[in-house]
Specification:
The protein is mostly beta strands and 544 residues long. The chain has 4 helices and 36 strands.
Length: 544
Protein backbone atom coordinates (compact mmCIF):
# COMPACT_ATOMS: atom_id res chain seq x y z
CA UNK A 1 0.00 0.00 0.00
CA UNK A 2 1.52 3.29 -1.14
CA UNK A 3 0.75 6.71 0.36
CA UNK A 4 -0.38 9.57 -1.79
CA UNK A 5 2.99 11.33 -1.82
CA UNK A 6 5.35 8.36 -1.76
CA UNK A 7 7.73 7.97 -4.68
CA UNK A 8 9.25 4.80 -6.02
CA UNK A 9 10.44 4.06 -9.52
CA UNK A 10 11.92 0.97 -11.05
CA UNK A 11 11.26 1.18 -14.77
CA UNK A 12 8.08 3.20 -14.51
CA UNK A 13 6.42 5.68 -12.20
CA UNK A 14 5.07 4.22 -8.97
CA UNK A 15 2.16 5.70 -7.04
CA UNK A 16 1.20 9.31 -6.49
CA UNK A 17 4.00 11.76 -5.84
CA UNK A 18 4.85 15.37 -5.35
CA UNK A 19 6.81 16.10 -8.52
CA UNK A 20 10.21 17.60 -7.94
CA UNK A 21 9.63 20.04 -10.76
CA UNK A 22 6.49 21.53 -12.27
CA UNK A 23 5.88 23.79 -15.20
CA UNK A 24 5.66 27.50 -14.58
CA UNK A 25 3.30 27.91 -17.55
CA UNK A 26 0.44 25.53 -18.17
CA UNK A 27 -2.53 25.73 -20.51
CA UNK A 28 -5.84 25.25 -18.73
CA UNK A 29 -8.96 23.97 -20.47
CA UNK A 30 -11.34 26.58 -21.81
CA UNK A 31 -14.75 26.65 -20.13
CA UNK A 32 -17.89 27.33 -22.12
CA UNK A 33 -19.64 30.27 -20.44
CA UNK A 34 -23.07 28.69 -20.07
CA UNK A 35 -24.18 25.31 -18.80
CA UNK A 36 -24.70 22.65 -21.45
CA UNK A 37 -27.24 20.98 -19.11
CA UNK A 38 -28.60 23.38 -16.46
CA UNK A 39 -30.13 22.31 -13.16
CA UNK A 40 -33.90 22.14 -12.86
CA UNK A 41 -35.79 25.18 -11.69
CA UNK A 42 -37.28 23.20 -8.81
CA UNK A 43 -33.80 22.56 -7.41
CA UNK A 44 -33.96 18.82 -7.83
CA UNK A 45 -30.75 16.94 -8.00
CA UNK A 46 -28.77 17.12 -11.25
CA UNK A 47 -25.66 15.04 -11.35
CA UNK A 48 -23.81 12.92 -13.87
CA UNK A 49 -22.52 9.42 -13.47
CA UNK A 50 -18.87 8.56 -12.95
CA UNK A 51 -18.21 7.70 -16.56
CA UNK A 52 -16.58 9.22 -19.65
CA UNK A 53 -18.75 10.93 -22.17
CA UNK A 54 -19.02 8.54 -25.14
CA UNK A 55 -18.19 9.50 -28.69
CA UNK A 56 -19.58 7.60 -31.67
CA UNK A 57 -19.09 8.20 -35.38
CA UNK A 58 -22.33 6.95 -36.86
CA UNK A 59 -21.85 6.96 -40.63
CA UNK A 60 -20.59 10.50 -40.66
CA UNK A 61 -22.97 11.70 -37.97
CA UNK A 62 -20.95 12.48 -34.86
CA UNK A 63 -22.94 11.59 -31.77
CA UNK A 64 -21.96 12.27 -28.19
CA UNK A 65 -23.65 10.45 -25.31
CA UNK A 66 -23.78 11.58 -21.71
CA UNK A 67 -25.56 9.93 -18.78
CA UNK A 68 -26.77 12.03 -15.92
CA UNK A 69 -29.09 11.89 -12.93
CA UNK A 70 -31.96 14.13 -12.02
CA UNK A 71 -34.46 13.55 -9.28
CA UNK A 72 -36.14 14.56 -6.09
CA UNK A 73 -37.71 11.72 -4.16
CA UNK A 74 -36.28 9.08 -6.54
CA UNK A 75 -33.28 9.39 -8.79
CA UNK A 76 -33.92 9.23 -12.52
CA UNK A 77 -31.20 8.56 -15.05
CA UNK A 78 -31.19 9.95 -18.55
CA UNK A 79 -29.13 9.41 -21.65
CA UNK A 80 -28.59 12.69 -23.49
CA UNK A 81 -27.24 13.02 -27.01
CA UNK A 82 -25.45 15.77 -28.85
CA UNK A 83 -24.68 16.16 -32.55
CA UNK A 84 -22.80 19.45 -32.31
CA UNK A 85 -19.70 18.23 -30.50
CA UNK A 86 -21.15 18.30 -27.03
CA UNK A 87 -22.36 21.89 -26.91
CA UNK A 88 -26.11 21.33 -26.88
CA UNK A 89 -27.85 18.20 -25.62
CA UNK A 90 -31.21 16.55 -26.07
CA UNK A 91 -32.78 14.04 -23.70
CA UNK A 92 -33.44 10.92 -25.74
CA UNK A 93 -34.78 8.46 -23.22
CA UNK A 94 -34.90 7.73 -19.56
CA UNK A 95 -32.53 4.97 -18.46
CA UNK A 96 -34.40 2.49 -16.26
CA UNK A 97 -32.78 0.87 -13.27
CA UNK A 98 -33.98 -0.05 -9.79
CA UNK A 99 -31.08 1.78 -8.17
CA UNK A 100 -31.43 5.03 -6.30
CA UNK A 101 -27.72 5.70 -5.89
CA UNK A 102 -24.93 7.23 -7.91
CA UNK A 103 -23.47 4.80 -10.41
CA UNK A 104 -21.25 4.31 -13.42
CA UNK A 105 -21.86 2.99 -16.88
CA UNK A 106 -19.14 0.88 -18.38
CA UNK A 107 -19.06 -0.20 -22.02
CA UNK A 108 -17.02 -3.37 -22.30
CA UNK A 109 -17.74 -4.07 -25.99
CA UNK A 110 -20.10 -3.05 -28.74
CA UNK A 111 -23.12 -4.93 -27.40
CA UNK A 112 -23.20 -4.89 -23.61
CA UNK A 113 -22.95 -2.14 -21.03
CA UNK A 114 -22.64 -2.63 -17.31
CA UNK A 115 -23.86 -0.32 -14.60
CA UNK A 116 -22.19 -0.60 -11.21
CA UNK A 117 -23.50 1.29 -8.22
CA UNK A 118 -23.49 1.22 -4.46
CA UNK A 119 -26.30 0.41 -2.08
CA UNK A 120 -26.32 0.69 1.71
CA UNK A 121 -27.43 -2.46 3.48
CA UNK A 122 -27.61 -3.79 7.03
CA UNK A 123 -27.22 -2.23 10.46
CA UNK A 124 -24.83 -0.61 10.84
CA UNK A 125 -25.09 0.16 7.16
CA UNK A 126 -22.40 -1.08 4.82
CA UNK A 127 -21.92 -0.17 1.18
CA UNK A 128 -22.26 -2.94 -1.40
CA UNK A 129 -21.54 -2.96 -5.11
CA UNK A 130 -24.46 -3.96 -7.32
CA UNK A 131 -24.51 -4.37 -11.08
CA UNK A 132 -26.96 -4.33 -13.98
CA UNK A 133 -26.36 -4.89 -17.66
CA UNK A 134 -27.93 -3.55 -20.82
CA UNK A 135 -28.06 -5.09 -24.29
CA UNK A 136 -30.18 -2.35 -25.85
CA UNK A 137 -27.61 0.42 -26.11
CA UNK A 138 -27.73 1.41 -22.49
CA UNK A 139 -31.40 2.35 -22.09
CA UNK A 140 -32.73 -0.48 -19.96
CA UNK A 141 -30.68 -2.32 -17.37
CA UNK A 142 -31.63 -5.73 -15.99
CA UNK A 143 -30.39 -8.58 -13.82
CA UNK A 144 -29.62 -6.73 -10.61
CA UNK A 145 -26.79 -8.57 -8.85
CA UNK A 146 -25.14 -7.92 -5.51
CA UNK A 147 -21.46 -8.28 -6.26
CA UNK A 148 -19.48 -7.55 -3.10
CA UNK A 149 -19.10 -5.29 -0.12
CA UNK A 150 -17.46 -2.16 -1.47
CA UNK A 151 -17.39 1.59 -1.02
CA UNK A 152 -18.83 4.40 -3.09
CA UNK A 153 -17.84 6.38 -6.18
CA UNK A 154 -16.72 3.71 -8.58
CA UNK A 155 -15.22 4.36 -12.00
CA UNK A 156 -14.48 1.61 -14.52
CA UNK A 157 -12.53 1.39 -17.74
CA UNK A 158 -12.03 -1.45 -20.20
CA UNK A 159 -8.29 -2.05 -20.59
CA UNK A 160 -7.94 -3.36 -24.11
CA UNK A 161 -4.23 -4.02 -23.55
CA UNK A 162 -4.94 -6.68 -20.93
CA UNK A 163 -8.54 -7.50 -21.88
CA UNK A 164 -9.74 -6.66 -18.38
CA UNK A 165 -12.21 -4.50 -16.56
CA UNK A 166 -10.30 -2.11 -14.31
CA UNK A 167 -12.19 -0.45 -11.49
CA UNK A 168 -11.07 2.62 -9.56
CA UNK A 169 -13.07 2.63 -6.37
CA UNK A 170 -13.28 4.30 -2.99
CA UNK A 171 -13.27 1.13 -0.89
CA UNK A 172 -13.97 2.49 2.58
CA UNK A 173 -17.55 2.34 3.85
CA UNK A 174 -18.15 5.90 4.94
CA UNK A 175 -21.58 6.94 6.12
CA UNK A 176 -21.57 10.03 8.33
CA UNK A 177 -23.17 9.66 11.72
CA UNK A 178 -25.65 12.32 12.80
CA UNK A 179 -23.92 15.09 14.76
CA UNK A 180 -20.62 13.24 14.55
CA UNK A 181 -18.90 14.62 11.48
CA UNK A 182 -15.53 13.35 12.70
CA UNK A 183 -16.35 10.04 11.03
CA UNK A 184 -15.59 11.59 7.65
CA UNK A 185 -12.36 13.25 8.77
CA UNK A 186 -8.85 12.06 9.47
CA UNK A 187 -7.92 11.43 5.84
CA UNK A 188 -9.78 8.15 5.53
CA UNK A 189 -10.89 8.34 1.91
CA UNK A 190 -8.73 6.31 -0.46
CA UNK A 191 -8.75 5.08 -4.06
CA UNK A 192 -8.06 1.44 -4.90
CA UNK A 193 -7.66 -0.45 -8.17
CA UNK A 194 -9.26 -3.84 -8.80
CA UNK A 195 -9.29 -5.95 -11.98
CA UNK A 196 -11.62 -8.46 -13.58
CA UNK A 197 -10.82 -10.45 -16.72
CA UNK A 198 -13.97 -12.57 -16.74
CA UNK A 199 -17.46 -11.65 -15.55
CA UNK A 200 -18.18 -8.13 -14.39
CA UNK A 201 -20.93 -9.03 -11.87
CA UNK A 202 -18.99 -11.82 -10.18
CA UNK A 203 -17.11 -11.00 -6.99
CA UNK A 204 -14.92 -14.08 -7.45
CA UNK A 205 -13.50 -12.66 -10.66
CA UNK A 206 -12.37 -9.36 -9.16
CA UNK A 207 -8.84 -9.07 -7.86
CA UNK A 208 -8.06 -7.83 -4.39
CA UNK A 209 -8.26 -4.06 -4.14
CA UNK A 210 -4.83 -2.45 -4.31
CA UNK A 211 -4.77 0.99 -2.71
CA UNK A 212 -3.11 3.34 -5.17
CA UNK A 213 -4.06 6.71 -3.79
CA UNK A 214 -4.57 8.39 -0.46
CA UNK A 215 -3.46 11.52 1.31
CA UNK A 216 -0.56 10.87 3.66
CA UNK A 217 -1.55 11.55 7.27
CA UNK A 218 1.41 13.92 7.71
CA UNK A 219 0.14 16.01 4.79
CA UNK A 220 -3.44 15.85 6.00
CA UNK A 221 -2.46 17.41 9.33
CA UNK A 222 0.15 19.84 7.94
CA UNK A 223 -1.34 23.30 7.46
CA UNK A 224 1.41 24.13 4.96
CA UNK A 225 0.61 21.21 2.67
CA UNK A 226 -1.69 21.40 -0.39
CA UNK A 227 -3.29 18.25 1.04
CA UNK A 228 -4.14 19.81 4.40
CA UNK A 229 -7.55 18.52 5.55
CA UNK A 230 -8.04 17.05 2.06
CA UNK A 231 -9.18 13.61 0.99
CA UNK A 232 -9.49 11.83 -2.32
CA UNK A 233 -13.14 11.41 -3.27
CA UNK A 234 -13.19 9.63 -6.63
CA UNK A 235 -10.96 8.95 -9.64
CA UNK A 236 -12.24 8.88 -13.21
CA UNK A 237 -9.83 7.58 -15.84
CA UNK A 238 -9.55 8.07 -19.61
CA UNK A 239 -6.83 7.19 -22.10
CA UNK A 240 -4.99 8.60 -25.10
CA UNK A 241 -2.79 5.86 -26.53
CA UNK A 242 -0.18 4.98 -23.92
CA UNK A 243 -1.09 7.97 -21.77
CA UNK A 244 -3.52 7.36 -18.94
CA UNK A 245 -5.16 10.40 -17.39
CA UNK A 246 -7.10 10.56 -14.16
CA UNK A 247 -9.43 13.22 -12.81
CA UNK A 248 -9.35 13.08 -9.02
CA UNK A 249 -11.92 14.79 -6.84
CA UNK A 250 -10.13 16.47 -3.94
CA UNK A 251 -12.56 16.92 -1.07
CA UNK A 252 -11.70 19.37 1.69
CA UNK A 253 -12.90 18.01 4.99
CA UNK A 254 -12.39 21.24 6.84
CA UNK A 255 -9.41 23.33 5.80
CA UNK A 256 -9.72 24.99 9.20
CA UNK A 257 -10.33 21.84 11.16
CA UNK A 258 -14.09 22.18 10.93
CA UNK A 259 -14.56 18.42 10.65
CA UNK A 260 -14.22 18.22 14.44
CA UNK A 261 -17.06 20.67 15.03
CA UNK A 262 -20.80 20.20 15.05
CA UNK A 263 -23.08 21.00 12.13
CA UNK A 264 -23.61 23.18 10.15
CA UNK A 265 -20.89 22.89 7.57
CA UNK A 266 -19.34 26.16 6.52
CA UNK A 267 -17.22 27.51 3.70
CA UNK A 268 -14.36 26.87 2.88
CA UNK A 269 -14.87 23.45 4.45
CA UNK A 270 -16.48 20.68 2.37
CA UNK A 271 -15.56 22.06 -1.03
CA UNK A 272 -14.32 19.89 -3.89
CA UNK A 273 -12.21 20.60 -6.97
CA UNK A 274 -10.50 18.44 -9.59
CA UNK A 275 -6.84 17.49 -9.97
CA UNK A 276 -5.26 15.88 -13.03
CA UNK A 277 -2.97 12.85 -12.65
CA UNK A 278 -1.01 10.88 -15.22
CA UNK A 279 0.23 7.32 -15.71
CA UNK A 280 1.85 5.27 -18.45
CA UNK A 281 0.23 2.00 -17.33
CA UNK A 282 -2.94 2.80 -15.38
CA UNK A 283 -1.55 1.48 -12.09
CA UNK A 284 1.32 3.78 -11.11
CA UNK A 285 0.33 7.42 -11.09
CA UNK A 286 2.07 10.78 -10.97
CA UNK A 287 0.44 13.96 -9.74
CA UNK A 288 0.74 17.08 -11.86
CA UNK A 289 1.07 20.80 -11.31
CA UNK A 290 2.38 20.48 -7.74
CA UNK A 291 -1.01 19.23 -6.49
CA UNK A 292 -2.94 22.23 -7.83
CA UNK A 293 -6.31 21.72 -9.58
CA UNK A 294 -6.91 21.67 -13.30
CA UNK A 295 -10.57 22.58 -12.63
CA UNK A 296 -10.58 24.95 -9.67
CA UNK A 297 -13.30 26.64 -7.65
CA UNK A 298 -14.30 29.96 -9.17
CA UNK A 299 -16.79 32.76 -8.71
CA UNK A 300 -19.52 31.37 -6.43
CA UNK A 301 -18.85 27.71 -7.33
CA UNK A 302 -18.04 25.66 -4.23
CA UNK A 303 -18.07 22.12 -5.64
CA UNK A 304 -16.82 20.70 -8.94
CA UNK A 305 -16.81 17.11 -10.17
CA UNK A 306 -15.62 16.13 -13.65
CA UNK A 307 -15.21 13.39 -16.22
CA UNK A 308 -13.05 13.53 -19.33
CA UNK A 309 -12.73 11.84 -22.68
CA UNK A 310 -10.63 12.11 -25.85
CA UNK A 311 -12.35 13.14 -29.09
CA UNK A 312 -10.06 13.30 -32.11
CA UNK A 313 -7.29 15.75 -31.13
CA UNK A 314 -9.14 17.36 -28.22
CA UNK A 315 -10.00 16.59 -24.62
CA UNK A 316 -13.55 17.19 -23.41
CA UNK A 317 -14.13 17.73 -19.71
CA UNK A 318 -17.70 17.74 -18.47
CA UNK A 319 -18.04 19.22 -15.00
CA UNK A 320 -20.91 19.20 -12.55
CA UNK A 321 -20.67 22.50 -10.66
CA UNK A 322 -22.67 23.83 -7.74
CA UNK A 323 -22.83 26.87 -5.50
CA UNK A 324 -23.82 24.55 -2.63
CA UNK A 325 -21.23 22.90 -0.39
CA UNK A 326 -20.91 19.18 -0.99
CA UNK A 327 -22.09 18.25 2.49
CA UNK A 328 -25.07 20.60 2.43
CA UNK A 329 -27.31 19.15 -0.23
CA UNK A 330 -29.47 16.78 1.79
CA UNK A 331 -30.37 15.52 5.21
CA UNK A 332 -28.02 12.77 6.46
CA UNK A 333 -29.43 9.94 8.58
CA UNK A 334 -32.38 12.02 9.63
CA UNK A 335 -30.31 14.92 10.96
CA UNK A 336 -32.22 18.17 10.59
CA UNK A 337 -31.71 21.81 11.26
CA UNK A 338 -28.18 22.12 9.97
CA UNK A 339 -29.01 22.52 6.29
CA UNK A 340 -30.80 25.40 4.70
CA UNK A 341 -34.30 24.32 3.75
CA UNK A 342 -33.80 25.57 0.21
CA UNK A 343 -30.91 23.14 -0.24
CA UNK A 344 -32.53 19.95 0.99
CA UNK A 345 -33.97 18.83 -2.33
CA UNK A 346 -30.84 18.91 -4.41
CA UNK A 347 -27.29 19.89 -5.09
CA UNK A 348 -28.24 22.51 -7.68
CA UNK A 349 -25.64 21.16 -10.08
CA UNK A 350 -25.31 22.32 -13.66
CA UNK A 351 -23.09 20.60 -16.22
CA UNK A 352 -20.48 22.63 -18.08
CA UNK A 353 -18.12 21.86 -20.94
CA UNK A 354 -14.37 22.50 -20.90
CA UNK A 355 -12.08 21.78 -23.86
CA UNK A 356 -8.38 21.73 -24.63
CA UNK A 357 -6.12 20.16 -27.25
CA UNK A 358 -4.23 16.97 -26.49
CA UNK A 359 -0.97 18.82 -27.19
CA UNK A 360 -1.78 21.24 -24.40
CA UNK A 361 -2.89 18.42 -22.12
CA UNK A 362 0.55 16.87 -22.54
CA UNK A 363 2.03 19.95 -20.89
CA UNK A 364 0.56 18.59 -17.66
CA UNK A 365 2.60 15.42 -17.77
CA UNK A 366 5.20 15.55 -15.00
CA UNK A 367 8.65 16.44 -16.21
CA UNK A 368 11.65 14.13 -15.90
CA UNK A 369 14.64 15.48 -14.01
CA UNK A 370 18.08 14.04 -14.72
CA UNK A 371 20.86 14.88 -12.28
CA UNK A 372 24.03 14.91 -14.35
CA UNK A 373 27.54 15.08 -12.94
CA UNK A 374 29.80 16.37 -15.71
CA UNK A 375 33.26 18.01 -15.52
CA UNK A 376 34.67 19.92 -18.49
CA UNK A 377 38.35 19.48 -19.31
CA UNK A 378 39.18 23.06 -20.21
CA UNK A 379 37.46 24.62 -17.18
CA UNK A 380 39.52 22.68 -14.62
CA UNK A 381 41.58 24.78 -12.24
CA UNK A 382 44.34 22.35 -11.26
CA UNK A 383 45.07 24.35 -8.11
CA UNK A 384 41.55 24.19 -6.65
CA UNK A 385 40.21 21.08 -8.41
CA UNK A 386 37.15 23.13 -9.39
CA UNK A 387 35.85 24.70 -12.57
CA UNK A 388 36.98 28.23 -13.29
CA UNK A 389 33.33 29.23 -13.81
CA UNK A 390 29.77 27.98 -13.64
CA UNK A 391 28.82 27.37 -17.25
CA UNK A 392 25.82 26.09 -19.19
CA UNK A 393 25.79 22.66 -20.81
CA UNK A 394 23.20 21.18 -23.15
CA UNK A 395 21.84 17.69 -22.53
CA UNK A 396 19.87 15.54 -24.95
CA UNK A 397 17.82 12.41 -24.44
CA UNK A 398 18.44 10.14 -27.43
CA UNK A 399 16.30 7.20 -28.47
CA UNK A 400 17.82 3.86 -27.58
CA UNK A 401 17.67 2.40 -31.10
CA UNK A 402 19.10 3.53 -34.42
CA UNK A 403 19.05 6.26 -35.68
CA UNK A 404 19.06 7.45 -32.04
CA UNK A 405 16.92 10.50 -32.68
CA UNK A 406 16.67 13.37 -30.20
CA UNK A 407 13.69 12.95 -27.89
CA UNK A 408 14.27 16.10 -25.81
CA UNK A 409 16.88 18.83 -25.34
CA UNK A 410 17.38 21.11 -22.34
CA UNK A 411 20.10 23.33 -20.90
CA UNK A 412 21.30 23.71 -17.34
CA UNK A 413 24.19 25.21 -15.39
CA UNK A 414 26.88 22.88 -14.08
CA UNK A 415 28.03 23.72 -10.59
CA UNK A 416 31.73 24.66 -10.54
CA UNK A 417 32.40 22.76 -7.29
CA UNK A 418 30.20 19.65 -7.41
CA UNK A 419 30.07 19.39 -11.25
CA UNK A 420 26.32 18.73 -10.85
CA UNK A 421 23.62 20.03 -13.16
CA UNK A 422 19.86 19.42 -12.87
CA UNK A 423 18.33 18.93 -16.32
CA UNK A 424 14.54 19.07 -16.38
CA UNK A 425 13.06 17.36 -19.47
CA UNK A 426 9.36 18.19 -19.96
CA UNK A 427 6.77 15.59 -21.05
CA UNK A 428 9.08 12.87 -22.32
CA UNK A 429 7.65 9.40 -22.84
CA UNK A 430 8.89 7.04 -20.12
CA UNK A 431 11.49 4.61 -21.35
CA UNK A 432 15.19 4.04 -21.84
CA UNK A 433 17.34 6.71 -23.47
CA UNK A 434 20.96 7.48 -24.14
CA UNK A 435 22.15 10.74 -22.65
CA UNK A 436 24.33 13.12 -24.68
CA UNK A 437 25.92 16.25 -23.21
CA UNK A 438 28.02 19.09 -24.64
CA UNK A 439 28.93 22.72 -24.05
CA UNK A 440 29.74 25.79 -26.13
CA UNK A 441 33.28 24.53 -26.70
CA UNK A 442 33.26 20.97 -25.38
CA UNK A 443 32.73 17.73 -27.28
CA UNK A 444 29.40 15.96 -27.42
CA UNK A 445 29.73 12.92 -25.15
CA UNK A 446 27.28 10.04 -24.75
CA UNK A 447 26.41 7.95 -21.71
CA UNK A 448 27.92 4.49 -21.59
CA UNK A 449 24.46 2.91 -21.55
CA UNK A 450 20.80 3.90 -21.61
CA UNK A 451 19.18 5.44 -18.56
CA UNK A 452 15.59 4.89 -17.42
CA UNK A 453 13.38 7.98 -17.69
CA UNK A 454 10.16 8.20 -15.71
CA UNK A 455 7.93 11.26 -15.55
CA UNK A 456 8.11 12.96 -12.19
CA UNK A 457 11.02 10.81 -11.04
CA UNK A 458 14.66 11.89 -10.76
CA UNK A 459 17.26 9.94 -12.73
CA UNK A 460 21.02 10.22 -12.33
CA UNK A 461 24.12 9.88 -14.49
CA UNK A 462 27.72 10.51 -13.54
CA UNK A 463 30.25 11.17 -16.30
CA UNK A 464 32.91 12.08 -13.73
CA UNK A 465 33.39 8.43 -12.78
CA UNK A 466 34.07 7.36 -16.37
CA UNK A 467 30.56 6.47 -17.53
CA UNK A 468 30.81 7.55 -21.18
CA UNK A 469 30.19 5.61 -24.37
CA UNK A 470 33.43 4.22 -25.72
CA UNK A 471 35.26 5.60 -22.69
CA UNK A 472 35.37 8.94 -24.50
CA UNK A 473 36.63 10.99 -21.53
CA UNK A 474 39.97 12.30 -20.29
CA UNK A 475 41.05 11.45 -16.75
CA UNK A 476 42.69 14.03 -14.51
CA UNK A 477 43.47 12.68 -11.07
CA UNK A 478 40.50 10.60 -9.97
CA UNK A 479 37.96 12.57 -12.05
CA UNK A 480 36.93 12.04 -15.66
CA UNK A 481 36.21 15.04 -17.90
CA UNK A 482 34.52 15.56 -21.25
CA UNK A 483 36.93 16.88 -23.86
CA UNK A 484 37.23 20.58 -24.66
CA UNK A 485 38.04 22.10 -28.03
CA UNK A 486 35.11 21.39 -30.40
CA UNK A 487 34.62 25.08 -31.10
CA UNK A 488 32.48 24.70 -34.22
CA UNK A 489 30.33 21.87 -32.80
CA UNK A 490 30.96 19.46 -35.67
CA UNK A 491 31.79 16.51 -33.36
CA UNK A 492 35.52 16.66 -34.21
CA UNK A 493 38.36 18.51 -32.55
CA UNK A 494 40.49 19.27 -35.58
CA UNK A 495 42.35 21.98 -37.50
CA UNK A 496 39.17 23.98 -38.05
CA UNK A 497 38.88 24.44 -34.29
CA UNK A 498 42.59 25.23 -34.06
CA UNK A 499 42.17 27.99 -36.63
CA UNK A 500 39.34 29.58 -34.63
CA UNK A 501 41.32 29.75 -31.41
CA UNK A 502 44.52 30.91 -33.16
CA UNK A 503 42.69 33.79 -34.80
CA UNK A 504 41.22 34.91 -31.48
CA UNK A 505 44.62 34.65 -29.79
CA UNK A 506 46.05 36.98 -32.43
CA UNK A 507 43.48 39.68 -31.63
CA UNK A 508 43.53 39.02 -27.88
CA UNK A 509 39.81 38.25 -27.77
CA UNK A 510 38.14 38.56 -24.37
CA UNK A 511 34.80 37.85 -22.77
CA UNK A 512 32.37 34.96 -22.98
CA UNK A 513 33.52 33.67 -26.37
CA UNK A 514 33.64 30.14 -27.73
CA UNK A 515 37.44 30.18 -28.05
CA UNK A 516 37.87 30.83 -24.31
CA UNK A 517 38.37 27.14 -23.67
CA UNK A 518 39.54 27.42 -20.07
CA UNK A 519 36.87 29.89 -18.95
CA UNK A 520 39.09 32.75 -17.77
CA UNK A 521 37.48 35.23 -20.24
CA UNK A 522 40.77 35.76 -22.13
CA UNK A 523 41.78 33.85 -25.26
CA UNK A 524 45.50 33.08 -25.10
CA UNK A 525 48.02 30.30 -25.65
CA UNK A 526 46.65 28.26 -22.75
CA UNK A 527 43.39 27.88 -24.67
CA UNK A 528 45.28 27.04 -27.83
CA UNK A 529 47.28 24.35 -26.06
CA UNK A 530 44.15 22.49 -24.96
CA UNK A 531 42.77 22.47 -28.48
CA UNK A 532 46.10 21.51 -30.01
CA UNK A 533 46.55 18.49 -27.74
CA UNK A 534 43.13 17.12 -28.64
CA UNK A 535 43.70 17.77 -32.36
CA UNK A 536 46.85 15.70 -32.18
CA UNK A 537 44.99 12.86 -30.43
CA UNK A 538 42.21 12.86 -33.09
CA UNK A 539 39.49 13.33 -30.48
CA UNK A 540 35.92 13.01 -31.82
CA UNK A 541 32.44 12.11 -30.63
CA UNK A 542 31.78 8.40 -30.21
CA UNK A 543 28.19 7.21 -30.61
CA UNK A 544 26.47 3.82 -30.55
Amino acid sequence: MLPFNLLACLLACLSFIIPAHSFSQLTYPTRYPTAVIPHNADGHRLFFLYMPMEYQDNAGQDTFKLYYVIGGTHDKRYLARSTDYGITWTDTQRVYTDSTYESIIMKADSTRKYMAYNGWRGSPKKSYMFSHFSDDGGFNFINKTQVMELGEDKSFIWNNDTQEFWGYVRPRNIEPVCNNPQTIGNGVRKIALMKNSMRFPSSGDWSNRDTILFVESSDYSNSGSPDYRTQTYYMQVFRNGNDWWGLVGMYRVGNNGEESKAFPYTFPEYTSDVELVWSDNGEDWCRTNNRQPILALHDSIKTIYAVGTIVNDSVYFYSAESTILHASYRSINGCTGYIQDSAKNGKFYSIYLYKMSIDKLNEWRPSSNVNIYCAVEGFLNTGTGKHNLRDTLTAELRNSTSPYGVAATVKSVIDSVTFLGNFNFPHVDPGNYYLAIYGRNSLETWSDSVISICNGIDADHNFTIGKAYGGNLIQKGSTYFIYSGDLNSDDFIDNDDQTIVDNDISIVATGYVVSDVNGDYVVDISDGAIVENNVEDFIATIRP
